[in-house]
Design a protein that fits this description.
Blueprint lengths: L8 E5 L4 H12 L4 E7 L7 H15 L3 E5 L10 H16 L4 E4 L4 H13 L4 H4 L5 E4 L2 E4 L7 H10 L16 H16 L3 H30 E3 L2 E3 H5 L3 H14 L7 H12 L4 E6 L2 E6 L2 E5 L11 E3 L6 E2 L6 E6 L5 E4 L6 E3 L6 E3 H8 L3 H4 L4 E4 L14 E2 L2 E2 L1 H5 L2 E7 L5
Parallel strand pairs: 1-2, 1-4, 2-3, 4-6
Antiparallel strand pairs: 5-6, 7-8, 8-11, 9-10, 10-11, 12-15, 13-14, 14-21, 15-18, 16-17, 18-19, 19-20
Helix pairs in contact: 1-6, 4-7, 4-8, 8-10
Length: 424
């Protein structure tokens, strides 16, 4: 089994069912550094105690360390139980996994076919129709699926021949769940008509995966050309691409930032925003927002929170100050007899410029610097303590963010370090 040298151990997602038990047995015989994790979703309260005992006994018998994860509370009303359970499982696994571990899962060929068919009926594109990769990432975790090309019949034969014992999940028979309906009601019909349906669909998923790799290679090259900084894209070179490459680029860029890809209509709205002549605009969808300012497109998980209007703190040279609204830590070195404070924008502040240039409205300076409107309230200001309420007749603010103005130099500010938290 080829692995990156970064990942030296395996973390098996052990449900206790037949598939994961077979994979467990194979891995322990290979003597790979291994431990197991079992997630109880809380959806089978009657079966859970016996299920847990079985999993614990199996790990004890085989001498493998086990982590147990319990998910508290039912899924929100109206939410898909399958989607909720999947999301909760990913979170639980991410908490348990160590940085040097591959997550290993026991999905097999029939699981792959079910995944492709589910994606097909949902109208997915190549990323969905490619199914699950043998080696990939799951919610940012590296994952191996070594049984993905193995028919379930071979797995069952191995389990019986090795006299393995496993626990049957009672929910596997519930036809209300989409995957179970496919497994018990649809696939048997397809197999009778086309006996080789599972191998055929798995092969088709492989072709889709090849096509997806080509799309991603094109998107990666396009992304390098349009990126100004992390999460900031330039509109002009995107507009120069045809509509298909624009959509391909946006999907790739969003996934690269671990942001959800919107449905087709919202993606079209993004393309219209990029092509428009409007200097400002935004498109939002669950889990992400795309904001335009001038020729730049900003990709965020949500609009940044704003600091309180009345927040301010006195400054002591070389003393760190934790800023509000998850803005990180600010440290300023200065020599000044006049007390200084750090605060945020309130109304008509002015900023000192280079020697002989006087000062200008802070709002105008922000525009000249190309600072997006939603960021302006989040830039810390440094001013004399007795000029907290700025007006045109009062002394201008000394500095803003990491910029040291001429007025700031005159006040003895030598250096500013801002350990700013990146946008989530």
């Amino acid at each position: 089994m080829a692995t990156s040298t970064q990942y030296r151990r395996l973390l098996l997602a052990f449900s206790g069912g037949m598939d994961s038990t077979v994979l467990f047995d194979v891995l322990r015989q290979l003597r790979w550094p291994l431990r197991a994790v079992h997630v109880d979703h809380g959806l089978q309260p009657q079966a859970a105690p016996a299920w847990r005992r079985h999993v614990q006994q199996q790990c004890t018998e085989w001498g493998v360390a086990l982590s147990l994860c319990d998910i508290d509370g039912p899924p929100p009303q109206g939410e898909s139980v399958e989607a909720w359970a999947r999301e909760q499982r990913y979170r639980a696994l991410a908490k348990v996994r160590e940085p040097d571990e591959w997550l290993v899962s026991a999905q097999h060929q029939t699981d792959q076919v079910e995944t492709v068919l589910l994606q097909l009926v949902r109208g997915a594109g190549p990323a969905g129709l490619a199914g699950m990769p043998v080696v990939g990432r799951l919610a940012s975790m590296p994952i191996l699926r070594p049984l993905l090309s193995v028919p379930v019949s071979r797995i069952h034969h191995y389990a019986v021949s090795q006299a393995l014992s496993w626990f049957e999940d009672p929910s596997n028979a519930e036809l209300a769940m989409d995957r179970n309906y496919l497994r018990h009601s649809v696939l048997p019909l397809l197999r009778r008509r086309w006996p080789g349906i599972e191998q055929t669909v798995a092969r088709a998923a492989g072709w889709q995966g090849d096509g997806l790799q080509l799309q991603q290679a094109v998107a990666a090259a396009d992304l390098r050309k349009v990126t100004r900084s992390r999460g900031v894209l330039r509109c002009a070179p995107i507009v120069a691409l045809d509509a298909t490459r624009q959509a391909n680029l946006l999907r790739f860029a969003l996934r690269a930032m671990a942001l959800p890809v919107p449905e087709a209509t919202r993606l079209q709205a993004l393309c219209r925003l990029i092509a428009s002549a409007a200097p400002r605009g935004e498109v939002c969808w669950p889990g992400a927002v795309m904001l335009r300012y001038r020729d730049d497109l900003h990709l965020l998980s949500h609009l940044p929170s704003q600091p309180p209007d009345d927040w301010q703190q006195p400054l002591n040279s070389d003393s760190p100050i934790e800023l509000p609204a998850a803005l990180g830590v600010l440290r300023v070195w200065f020599e000044s007899d006049a007390p200084l404070v750090v605060r945020f924008r309130r109304r008509s502040e002015r900023i000192g410029l280079a020697a002989g240039a006087g000062h200008t409205a802070l709002a105008k300076w922000y525009q000249q610097q190309g600072i997006p409107p939603w960021e302006r309230q989040r830039l810390p200001l440094i001013a004399h303590a007795d000029t907290v309420d700025q007006s045109e007749r009062q002394e201008p603010v000394l500095t803003v963010g990491t910029y040291i103005s001429e007025a700031g130099r005159m006040a003895g500010i030598a250096r500013i370090e801002w350990d700013r938290q990146p946008h989530p």
